[in-house]
């Protein structure tokens, strides 16, 4: 069940110094804005080792209210050659697939909901996707709808079914990124599963600043009732079990592996273990600059240059 991995490259992409061919599905999210990071944080498509990934999700492209796909950053995507750089990785790994990701946290529900409900707008999205595959060399579409609501439940399946039907002749892939904890009101899991190639489980951000205590980003298992900082269903194992129990095809599930950590501002610096009271987000990474987030590259730097408390190391064992 855990044979497939979905590496969240949205904050950082890890490059190994050795290469090996990935043999199962490894989905790597590439954040197109990483090219603008300062100094050593800058990250280009050519920095990705394409033998580590079987699929690269190009995040994000936008969608116009009429359903047509939108290049959000023409300067980076086209002029600076970010899309071309990703496609060029296929020269190194000819089996690599590249996928357009739409949606994401910032897009929210507002864009996709009106498209999913309208036959005309769904047709526009389908036609536009096929056009983008042709124009830019992509091999599929990833829908990262955060999040559908009860009113969207049937429309989401209709959208996926129509996309799948339109993509099949060309062999294009259709994938979705979904909430780790199934949203029963909005997810028709058997139907979603039947219509997509992959379901990328967002098995991360289980503990973030704002939760009031420190906790692991992406625990594999629940530590049991004596782990008060963890909730029973907020770990990778129970996420997978829940999705399978609700009718997802296990062979289509990928688990999300975050290559970043969350930081916390401790209420009391002398109490710094898991479950310690935390008032706010801690430091941001100097390159990624996300609120309460540090990329693996930034954490690795801290580990090298400073005395890092042992419990911090144990958290990173979970990454
Ligand atoms: C959708 O809107 C965009 C932006 O206004 C426009 O470029 C595109 O042609 C429209 N697509 C259709 C199918 O009308
Ligand atoms: C995995 O999760 C399921 C469902 O929450 C649970 O029943 C099972 O005991 C868990 N397995 C382990 C090894 O913790």
Summarize the structure in words:
This protein has one domain (13-262): TIM Barrel (Alpha-Beta Barrel). Helix content is 27%, strand content 20%. The protein is built from 9 helices and 13 strands. It has helices at 74-79, 82-88, 112-117, 119-136, 153-167, 189-195, 236-245, 296-305, 310-316, and strands at 5-8, 26-31, 55-63, 69-70, 97-103, 140-144, 173-179, 198-202, 253-258, 260-262, 264-266, 278-281, 293-295. The strands form 3 sheets. The protein has an 8-stranded parallel β-barrel with strand order 1-2-3-5-6-7-8-9, surrounded by 4 helices. It has a two-stranded antiparallel sheet with strand order 10-13. Strands 11-12 form a two-stranded antiparallel sheet. The protein is globular and about 60 Å long. The protein starts with a strand and ends with a helix. The structure holds 2-acetamido-2-deoxy-beta-D-glucopyranose (2 copies). One 2-acetamido-2-deoxy-beta-D-glucopyranose binds next to helix 7. Residues 24-319 form the GH18 domain. It holds the Pfam family Glyco_hydro_18.
């Amino acid at each position: 069940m855990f044979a497939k991995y979905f590496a969240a490259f949205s904050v950082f992409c890890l490059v190994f110094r050795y290469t090996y061919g990935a043999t199962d599905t490894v989905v790597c999210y590439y954040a197109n804005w990483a090219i603008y990071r300062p100094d050593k944080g800058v990250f280009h498509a050519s920095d990705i080792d394409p033998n580590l990934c079987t699929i690269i999700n190009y995040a994000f492209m936008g969608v116009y209210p009429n359903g047509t796909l939108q290049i959000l950053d023409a300067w980076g995507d086209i002029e600076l050659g970010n899309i071309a750089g990703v496609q060029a990785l296929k020269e190194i790994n000819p089996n690599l697939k590249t996928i357009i990701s739409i949606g994401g946290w910032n897009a929210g529900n507002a864009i996709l909901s009106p498209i999913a409900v309208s036959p005309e707008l769904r047709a526009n999205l389908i036609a536009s996707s096929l056009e983008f595959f042709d124009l830019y060399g992509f091999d599929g579409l990833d829908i990262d709808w955060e999040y559908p609501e009860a009113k969207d439940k049937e429309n989401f399946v209709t959208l996926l079914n129509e996309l799948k039907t339109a993509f099949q002749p060309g062999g294009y892939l259709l994938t979705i990124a979904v909430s780790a904890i199934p949203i029963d009101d909005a997810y028709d899991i058997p139907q979603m599963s039947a219509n997509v190639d992959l379901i990328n489980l967002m098995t991360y951000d289980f503990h973030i600043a704002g939760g009031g205590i420190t906790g692991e980003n992406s625990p594999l298992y629940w530590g049991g009732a004596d782990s008060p900082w963890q909730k029973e269903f907020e770990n990778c194992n129970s996420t997978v079990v829940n999705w399978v129990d609700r009718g997802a095809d296990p062979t289509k599930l990928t688990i999300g592996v975050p290559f970043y950590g969350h930081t916390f501002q401790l209420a009391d610096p002398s109490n710094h273990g898991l479950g310690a009271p935390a008032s706010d987000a801690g430091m941001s990474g100097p390159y990624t600059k996300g609120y309460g987030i540090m990329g693996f590259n930034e954490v690795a730097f801290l580990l090298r240059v400073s005395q890092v408390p042992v419990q911090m190391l144990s958290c990173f064992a979970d990454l």
